[in-house]
Amino acid sequence: MSVMIGLVAYSPTLYRLFCAATGYGGTTQRADSAAASVSDKTVTVRFDTNIASDLPWRFEPVQRDVKVRLGEDKLVFFRAENLSDKALVGHATFNVTPDKVGLYFKKIQCFCFDDERLEPHQQVDMPVDFFVDPALAQDPDTQDVSEITLSYTFFRTADSEKAKDLSRFLVSAPPDPHRGEELFEQRCTACHALDRNKAGPALGGVFGRRAGSVPGYNYSPALLASGVEWDQDDLDRWLADPRGFVAGARMPIKIPDATTRRDIIAYLKRESIEETAPLQHSASDAVPQHASLRAPK
Ligand code: HEC
To answer: Is the CB–ligand 1 distance for residue 52 below 6 Å?
Structure first.
């Protein structure tokens, strides 16, 4: 099979055959699920996207790069948007550099490169689930590799008859906490954990919690005084622009993309519900549950 992956990197037709033969085509079936062993060695995978000049789409990776341990299953997304007023069909090819790494770069879910149709102004996030085979570190040719680039190019296709409808990846699909978890790891864990304060406050249980209420975290006076109780809407406005939402707040990043925010919030909500469920035994206590969590003023 590895030989095949080496080949298909250069041939969309073979890649299609490969998908057909193994049944990947958009189903949830997994290849060798993630490799049996996950090693401590990490590599950085960068994503690169290109688009032929006659295809008026925007096409970009949702994340520029990810760091993965060898053997670790990773889910990433690529966003495509049709900028034109008519439905257009494209197909993608991919390649992995350095070339010699192609053998070890394994996809377990592909946005299989059939011809793909995007309706006018439609925007979709296409998932790619991959891992880097730990055998990479055993091969004398590749053991020094610390960076891999996965590159996709979308071309315009004339034949639109058999095109698959990319709306299966429509951004208006229901919120996806699993994707949110991946995004949380990529975008938030530099400063946040669920269970402890880091540069930012602990976020486990944040859904429904009062802003500025994690003990031992040194909040900005602005957030402490905000009176916000984190719900869907407030979290969305906060993530879109923390300082626009609470002037004087100290969170330095913004998440401009609505779908990214939606899925991260779905994840935080799921974690909050799981986290607070056991506490509900004492819900009749006179003291509100979150009182003990409130930071001293
Ligand atoms: C570069 C660091 C950094 C990153 C990255 C970051 N945050 Fe924050 N976050 C902070 C800081 C600092 C605060 C405290 C703000 C204040 O006190 O004004 C904060 C506060 C928050 C709060 C308010 C929590 C409370 O207890 O009231 C939420 C919710 C939050 N962040 C969510 C996120 C999410 C979700 C992400 C990822 C999309 C994220 N943050 C990424 C630094 C960061």
So the answer is: no
